[in-house]
Amino acid sequence: MTRLRVAAAQINAVVGDLSGNAERVLDFYERAVAEACDLVVFPELTVTGYPPEDLLHKPALVAEAAETVAKLAARTGACTAVIGFPERVGDALYNAAAIGADGLVVGVYRH
Prior knowledge:
The chain has a five-stranded mixed beta sheet with strand order 1-2-3-4-5. With 111 residues, the protein is α/β, with parallel strands linked by helices. The chain is globular and about 45 Å long. It has two helices and five strands, in the order E-H-E-H-E-E-E. The protein is 30% helix and 30% strand.
């Protein structure tokens, strides 16, 4: 039987602190890799902090969140990361989860 080692990342994301939250994600991701995890799952809206409330009305913040997710995904390797962030697609705003692996965003779940 193949084993799957999963890390549940309960990090203390700060609302509006995208760069600080990205550092928290990378710190935990590196710990998960050191523990030979195959998958690390971060909380809802990790990149922006929860709940972002009125910050989501700022298009620049939502765009920066997408850029941050791409930068985080670029730092992934064989350990897959699921990272929560807000994503705008057309006129719709989603509570999304990016799947980062092998340096890429390989998928996005939108709710």
